[in-house]
């Protein structure tokens, strides 16, 4: 039994209720999937009351009976498929569909792109502590199809953004907003969730935004399920903390992808969760992170407002939100031309960081590290018009931040009349960022440089080369 799953006794209770209510096997499967924390594939087996060994034997007998060749399945393989550690081959998916009288979508192994809602489904809602879960029939809950859609996107050979996927990203956020105010969850499930959130914060630093966004949606679906009923205060706080962190990661990924509308909405979800939790430092973190969105997309006054609100909430104690708020304020003020105020804010960020405890070597999203302080310091000095001799290191966990700094340098070179040097630097910046990180926030800022090139310099070699590179550069979206 995987961590976070209910015991087999829970599935037995559902089978008894299904028999009494004369449910179909598919309705029973949905009830077990929704309640017990198991995959759809495993829920099909549990709905029939089969052990893993019995399921493999049934599959082998089916293949022999219908002349379908060797099943090529084992207990270990079945467990791996059921717990999403491996994916069966297309031929095996067909055999499993025959075995469970289902299709790949209902097995959770493919996406469903039909426009109809697929008929009546079983929706499982956790009961209050000490009471059994109950079920309700609804036509609109398609969480399993949504999960299958994101799994399908992750398993594709090339990540792509589509209207359908973005609609499901938004629906995940809306569903999460609706359930924040309203569950019985074990300590083991909360420990697993804390570990998962920490892993996402670590992997986000180096992961491409689009596949990471899809993985976050899957995790948030699990969090929403756990939050569907009110928890004891301590459990509720841990769920809210996870919600804040995962929503912030989602907002940041959408910002990098250029979807400012959904990024703004996800920051709103993070604010709702952090305000509900009441932790001032967490509330400050949300505002400090949200300040990045208007900075990169044109509203510097809003960046300053959010940064100052973050510093006020963070209080006098040295912390990542306080340091980030001061650094974000400094960079925005410098771009606005308020140089004296920018230098004061930058000095405050450095003072706060000097008082913070040592960070160690673990790079985590939302931790204001020495590397992040360096990025903000250099960005502020560039906006102040100072000559900064800075070259990104040969390796490191960050992919997009160094490129944005180089593009800031290029923009100031153009304003100083050094057009060819600026275009050479911008071309270097674009070529050094991995293709999967070449998102809208990078490509659009590079294109903005060309709009600042004087008309008489458009035929310069460096300008033409940058134009050709950008013509071929399709941002990840």
Detailed description of the structure:
The protein is an all-alpha fold and 477 residues long. The protein has helices at 8-21, 25-36, 40-47, 52-66, 75-82, 90-99, 143-155, 163-179, 187-204, 209-226, 233-257, 260-277, 280-290, 292-296, 300-314, 320-336, 339-355, 370-383, 400-415, 419-432, 440-451, 461-472; strands at residues 121-125, 134-138. It is 65% helix and 2% strand. A two-stranded antiparallel sheet has the order 1-2. A hairpin with an 8-residue loop joins strand 1 and strand 2.
Please render the helix and strand layout as text.
Layout: H1 8-21, H2 25-36, H3 40-47, H4 52-66, H5 75-82, H6 90-99, E1 121-125, E2 134-138, H7 143-155, H8 163-179, H9 187-204, H10 209-226, H11 233-257, H12 260-277, H13 280-290, H14 292-296, H15 300-314, H16 320-336, H17 339-355, H18 370-383, H19 400-415, H20 419-432, H21 440-451, H22 461-472
Antiparallel strand pairs: 1-2
Helix pairs in contact: 1-2, 2-3, 4-6, 7-10, 8-10, 8-12, 9-10, 9-11, 10-11, 11-12, 11-13, 12-13, 13-15, 13-16, 15-16, 16-17, 16-18, 17-18, 18-19, 19-20, 19-21, 20-22, 21-22
Question: What descriptors fit this protein?
Answer:
single chain; 477 residues; mainly alpha; 65% helix; Transcriptional regulator
Query: What amount of the residues lies in strands?
Result: under 5%
**Uncertain parts:** 125-141
Rounded to an integer in angstroms, the radius of gyration calculated over CA atoms is 26 Å
User: Mean pLDDT score, rounded?
Assistant: 83
How would you spell out the order of helices and strands?
A: HHHHHHEEHHHHHHHHHHHHHHHH
Spatial arrangement of strands, main beta sheet: 1-2
Termini gap? 38 Å
Protein name: Transcriptional regulator
InterPro entries: Cro/C1-type_HTH (IPR001387)
Organism: Streptosporangium brasiliense
